[in-house]
Give the backbone structure.
Amino acid sequence: MIVRILFFAKARDLAGAAFAELRLEDGATVADLRRALGHACPALAPVLPRMHVAINNNYAADPDAIPADAEIACFPPVSGG
């Protein structure tokens, strides 16, 4: 399946784009997405372990499966005070 990933904040800066499209195997998980992003865009490596992933507007964990028609958003943790 081909998925479209939207990047926000520092993830967008590191990716150098607002979005990317990646090919993932059917039944891929968020962990698979992180690995694929690391290969496709090595500049994201510093934020990948801590990056939040949302699927269809809900936070997702590494074991969660990504449906074929999902809207995926990636952004680093918010910091500050």
Notes: The radius of gyration is 12 Å. DSSP finds two helices and five strands in the chain. Helices lie at 9-15, 30-40.
